[in-house]
From TrEMBL, chain A:
Species of provenance: Quadrisphaera granulorum
GO-annotated molecular function: ABC-type transporter activity
Gene Ontology, cellular component aspect: plasma membrane
PROSITE patterns named in the record: ABC_TM2
Protein name stated in the entry: Transport permease protein
Automatic annotation (TrEMBL), chain B:
Record-linked InterPro entries: AAA+_ATPase, ABC_transporter-like_ATP-bd, ABC_transpr_TagH-like, Bact_Polysacc_Export_ATP-bd, P-loop_NTPase
GO CC annotation, single: membrane
PROSITE patterns the UniProt entry points to: ABC_TRANSPORTER_2 (PS50893)
The family this protein is said to belong to: Belongs to the ABC transporter superfamily.
Superkingdom per UniProt: Bacteria
Keyword annotations of the record: ATP-binding, Nucleotide-binding, Transport
Protein name in UniProt: ABC-2 type transport system ATP-binding protein
Cross-referenced SUPFAM superfamilies: P-loop containing nucleoside triphosphate hydrolases
SMART domains: AAA
GO molecular-function term, one example from the UniProt record: ABC-type transporter activity
Every ABC transporter domain range: 25-255
Species the sequence originates in: Quadrisphaera granulorum
């Protein structure tokens, strides 16, 4: 073992005061191991293993498709409804899983948080990453479905899809940091987040078309609805994976201000991320005491 | 190695060889009984206070020089472990400041980062990374860690199937093979059977001889007075003695 480094080379530091999310980047090896651990632990003793991340959205998809696509006949008014539905659903699933697990991440890792100092932002970020691991196979399924219904890749729509994914990841991380830190003090947060996650799928045009909302509510409500970053991400996914494959659907099937709304969503997601980080750092001092 | 914290200003009155400077630290715990929003709202409406407070540390100042081995002594509830947690960064003081120079490994509790569903090998990597090692240094030291723990045969078995002794051996082994300048050790020398305990103590002496700084909390007074050069006695959150380890043990026994 090497001898300890000489004192003069070493700066004074304050224990327990890290650089937040920057430390997560610095310690990405640990992040990788935490993600691997969470995946291993989640599927311990399960025969299907990671295949569960296909089964759950698969069942959910079939239920929505039967109830809304067939019984309520939305597939009559939306061309390629199976692709339309699934492209929105994968976005919402990514968000709800990332947000829900990130909210619980600090509490779940209480033994570590209480005993060893490490950048605590690692835990919510690892949860978002795990949700990303589950998200990728769903996108693969989406791609296959889209190709079957006549979709071909185009550059700009795919750029939109990448942007949408980043918006969702940033939004879920920011909200996860915010609610995850508050959840240490008030365990009500995780229940509140579950409730919010239940509503998310209905607050964006996943199961229906955006203009069905616009024609039913006052203009300002429709504007707020359009500025919801999740709505923007869902529409970007429609733009990327659904609309190019349709034949008889005009461009008005997508909301008119999608570009502007996308920029707003980027700003909103960035603000939420910064706010989540700030709150997390304020509350962090109480983690070891309150857990 | 990755640094754990961002750089901060030098503490006032730090000696040239100081590794740890604890400056007038107070730690107050709020003994709360209300946890949910509903209860908090009720408490606010009724004007009930949200629980009394408790001062775990009440103005403690100390400096540990590079290469010193310091025992923190005191009876239960004297604030030893709280002080150790403040130095490790797990908690932040209510007032006052803690400053460090160098990388720190807190052996606050052996095996805190171990997960029962992972194998011994996976846990070595995970725990090494948690304690601040990067991938190449864990890989380079992996065989040494396993050899020290003497559980080579079971390294690819899930840790939940380990006996408690095996578990502690492996956890301790990872911890003493990280490469920090400052070691914080809380009651971990009760690890394993006697031969392994002796081995651990030898290892800790080695770390000491290499010039690393040790802060030890233990109730094993004989071991502490043999291992440490300096002893600090805490009583109800106050520092009541600072001197040689042997004198500190004598002082504690007279309390």
């Amino acid at each position: 073992m090497s001898a300890p480094a000489p004192l003069v080379d070493q700066p004074w530091t304050e224990p327990g005061k890290g650089a937040g999310l920057l430390d997560v980047v610095r310690r990405r090896y640990l992040l990788k191991l935490l993600v691997r651990k969470e995946l291993r632990v989640r599927y311990r003793g399960s025969v299907l293993g990671l295949a569960w991340s296909y089964v759950k959205p698969g069942v959910q998809y079939v239920v929505y498709f039967l109830a809304l696509g067939i019984f309520l006949n939305l597939r009559g008014s939306i061309e390629d409804y199976p692709v339309y539905l699934f492209s929105g659903l994968v976005v919402v699933n990514f968000f709800t899983e990332a947000f829900g697990n990130a909210t619980r991440a600090v509490v779940w890792n209480a033994p570590l948080v209480k005993k060893i100092f490490l950048p605590r932002e690692l835990f919510p970020v690892a949860s978002v990453w795990v949700a990303g691991v589950h998200f990728v196979p769903q996108v693969v399924v989406l791609l296959i479905g889209a190709v079957i219904s006549g979709w071909r890749p185009q550059v700009l729509p795919l750029v939109g899809a990448v942007l949408a994914t980043l918006i969702i990841a940033a939004l879920a991380t920011g909200l996860g940091l915010l609610f995850g830190s508050l959840n240490v003090v008030f365990r009500d947060m995780e229940n509140f987040v579950d409730l919010a996650n239940m509503v998310v799928v209905w607050l964006s045009p996943v199961l229906y078309r955006w203009d069905q909302v616009a024609s039913a509510v006052p203009a300002w409500v429709a504007t707020v609805y359009q500025l919801n970053p999740i709505t923007v991400a869902v529409e970007l996914y429609h733009y990327a994976f659904w609309w190019p494959g349709t034949v008889n659907t005009p461009a008005t099937a997508l909301p008119p201000d999608l570009l502007v709304n996308s920029l707003v969503a980027v700003v909103v997601a960035a603000v939420v991320l910064v706010a989540g980080q700030l709150v997390f750092r304020r509350v962090e001092g109480r983690f070891a005491i309150d857990l | 190695m990755t640094s754990m914290s961002t750089t901060s200003s030098a503490p006032r009155a730090a000696g040239p060889n100081a590794r740890i400077v604890v400056d007038d630290v107070r730690m107050q715990f709020v003994l709360r009984h209300n946890r949910s929003l509903k209860e908090l709202a009720m408490a606010m409406v009724r004007g009930k206070d949200l629980g009394n407070t408790f001062m775990a540390l009440d103005g403690v100042s100390l400096q540990v020089d590079s290469g010193e081995t310091v025992a923190l002594l005191g009876h239960n509830g004297s604030g030893k472990s709280t002080l150790l947690k403040l130095i490790s960064g797990v908690m932040h003081p209510t007032s006052g400041s803690v400053r460090l120079r160098g990388r720190i490994a807190g052996l606050i509790e052996v095996g805190a980062g171990f997960h029962p569903d992972l194998t011994g090998r996976e846990n070595v990597y995970l725990n090494g990374a948690i304690l601040g090692m990067d991938e190449p240094s864990i890989r380079a030291r992996f065989d040494e860690i396993v050899a020290f723990s003497e559980i080579e045969r079971f390294i690819d078995t899930e840790v939940k199937h380990y006996s408690s002794g095996m578990f502690l051996r492996l956890a301790f082994s990872v911890a003493v093979h990280t490469d920090p300048e400052i070691f914080l050790i809380d009651e971990i020398l009760s690890v394993g059977d006697e031969p392994f305990q002796r081995k651990c103590l030898d290892r800790i002496r080695e770390l000491k001889d290499e010039g690393r700084t040790l802060v030890v909390v233990s109730h094993d007074l004989n071991m502490v007075s043999e291992l440490c050069s300096r002893g600090i006695v805490l009583q109800r959150g106050n520092q009541v003695f600072d001197g040689t380890a042997a004198d500190a043990v004598a002082h504690l026994r007279s309390l």
